[in-house]
Amino acid sequence: MAAPKKGRRPTGAQGRPGRALAIILIAMVALTAGMFLTKQTTPRLGIDLAGGTSITLKAKSEPGKPDAINETNMNTAVGIIERRVNGLGVSEAEVQTQGRDHIIVNIPKGTNEQQAREQVGTTAQLYFRPVLAFADGSPAAPEGTPSPNPSASGSGAPKPGDGKTSPSASPSSSATSQGRALSEALKAPAAPTPSPSASESKKADDNKAPSPSASAPTPPTGDEAAAAALQAKFAALDCNVEAQRAAASAGAKPEDPMVACGQRGTAWGKWILGPAQVNGQDVKNAQGQISPQSGQWIVTMQFTDKGADKFAKITGELATKQMPQNQFAIVLDGQVISDPSVSQALTGGNAEISGGFTQQSAQDLGNMLSYGALPLSFSEDSVTTVTAALGGEQLKAGLIAGAIGLLLVVIYLLVYYRGLAFIAIISLLVSAILTYTIMALLGKGIGFALNLPAVCGAIVAIGITADSFIVYFERIRDEIREGRTLRPAVERAWPRARRTILVSDFVSFLAAAVLFIVTVGKVQGFAFTLGLTTLLDVVVVFLFTKPVMTLLARTKFFSSGHPWSGLDPKRLGAKPPLRRSRRTGSAPAPVDAKEA
């Protein structure tokens, strides 16, 4: 007889409820300690609760491509901009289309907000163009005025303030000879491509001095009139004036040479650039990292198969030339962000840019190279600062609604379940502690930000969690109605309630997962919170509610069926005669024996 009793105990873990309670208590302590150790004691807030910046971008039609603004290209641009912004570590950034030709970018307040705003503004296509000529950003001196001697340009300096001095150079000794050399370069036939070397990296070559007579760049197409017009535009350009910087590259096509401005250290420079040889879509991946050889920050690039062939060809041509024609410019939004030099052909689909990078400038350039190739060009239509006042009012209203809903649930539990309501309320409190601490830690860990839909998901979870308690309590009551005492009723009810709870929570979690996958923006916050709280409901019911119920079933207040325990057999309609009938059914046997 002892063996069957032993076999039944593990089913409901009747003898070891303390172990489950210890596990959840340790988890709560660890999460709370982690929250204070990381100094992230409150969840991070989204733009609707914390405020931030909302940027409206308008797509621009390009010459010869009237149908470029379409749904496919707009959705592609949204994905690229979102990856660029989130690549900076900005949490809860929201990027979505509005109408036919607008994209809305919402950036909440955070440490990288300003940096993200700067990169969102540079949204045009990315190109690699050969350098034909370089000079400082000021207009050229009148003809006959001596110009400075040429000097080699530093490579890989994409951002101001990185400590590099600004090179000042003139491609030739006079404006007349410079224009003639450029005209010849634009008309020259293609130079033969040398045999590529096995080098896998490209490094700055600041010690190379250009030959004053070397002026034959990579040969683009054009005639003398176009060359003269380009030279005149280059000579007159003043890159220190913002309006001229913006107009310098306006309307330039990828297949044509162009004039562009860019920053070298803290000063502006200007370039004449040949036709684009590689575009941003040919870059598979790029990132800023520390070189294991030099210990300096570099930018590594990995090209697609087609991009690798294009890059090997152009670098092979540039490697045979002198400064500055052995450089290629990385042009984003019509502005030169880097102009590294090439000393040999780069094959294999991998390359690196080195020279004077800081951590931020290397990471910024890597981010632009990875995510800068958009199918459309955009202009900033508006930039709006969003205050947290409206979101704060909505949050307050939502919390009041949640508190009212929670109060109604508690009142219902107290009226209908009486003493069992104590278990439900404590379980809800445990679930709330776990939810809060995990949300706070996820804010620092994965950039999760709490927004209004996420708050709604947490409020909805109150009902899901309360439903699990009700399912278990009703199963226990069913067992008592069948005439069983409380302790066996608690253990027999658990397997049946457990199946129902798991199925119900699985359906809720599946709905949350599908909603998270198929939606974007703030709705994902609702889905994420709903899925998280659904998982926590299973943890709380299994590791807290059931063990507590097992312990309370041993107390006199609950086991005796006190009227305020919520488990009074009389109030539940239990039928003790069911057991009595079994005893009376066995009693007549001795009477019949005596009569016999």
Describe this structure in words.
- By secondary structure, the chain is of the alpha+beta class.
- The protein contains 19 helices and 15 strands.
- The protein has helices spanning 2-12, 17-37, 47-50, 71-86, 113-121, 175-187, 224-236, 242-248, 305-318, 359-371, 389-417, 420-445, 452-481, 486-518, 522-552, 556-559, 569-572, 577-586, 588-595; strands at 44-45, 52-60, 94-98, 102-108, 126-136, 258-264, 267-273, 278-279, 283-290, 297-303, 328-332, 335-338, 350-357, 377-386, 449-450.
- The strands form four sheets. Strands 5-7-6-12-11 form a five-stranded mixed β-barrel. Strands 3-4-2-14 form a four-stranded antiparallel sheet. The protein has a three-stranded antiparallel sheet with strand order 9-10-13.
- The protein is elongated.
Topology, element by element:
Layout: H1 2-12, H2 17-37, E1 44-45, H3 47-50, E2 52-60, H4 71-86, E3 94-98, E4 102-108, H5 113-121, E5 126-136, H6 175-187, H7 224-236, H8 242-248, E6 258-264, E7 267-273, E8 278-279, E9 283-290, E10 297-303, H9 305-318, E11 328-332, E12 335-338, E13 350-357, H10 359-371, E14 377-386, H11 389-417, H12 420-445, E15 449-450, H13 452-481, H14 486-518, H15 522-552, H16 556-559, H17 569-572, H18 577-586, H19 588-595
Parallel strand pairs: 1-15, 6-12
Antiparallel strand pairs: 2-4, 2-14, 3-4, 5-7, 5-8, 5-11, 6-7, 9-10, 10-13, 11-12
Helix pairs in contact: 2-12, 2-15, 4-10, 6-7, 11-12, 11-13, 12-13, 12-15, 13-14, 13-15, 14-15
